[in-house]
Write a structure and sequence with these properties.
83% helix; 0% strand
Length: 70
């Protein structure tokens, strides 16, 4: 999960980049995060889901390749 989140953060632009900046520098009570979430459109969420699914697919392919190579 950490790698997937790091991948999304590295590719983030626009509103999603603002969200990650708010999370990195937010107060412990989460006030900065709530404000940033209000600014994010559905498109970045779709991108994050796509990256997570891609990561899962890549991992599954690696495991399958290792199993079938034996």
């Amino acid at each position: 999960m950490d790698n997937a989140l790091a991948n999304v953060a590295a590719q983030a632009t626009g509103d999603m980049q603002n969200l990650f900046a708010a999370i990195d520098f937010s107060h412990p009570d989460g006030t900065g995060v709530r404000s940033a979430l209000r600014q994010v459109a559905p498109t970045p969420y779709d991108h994050a889901a796509h990256v997570a699914l891609q990561t899962g697919r890549d991992l599954s392919r690696l495991v399958f390749d290792q199993i079938t190579a034996v």
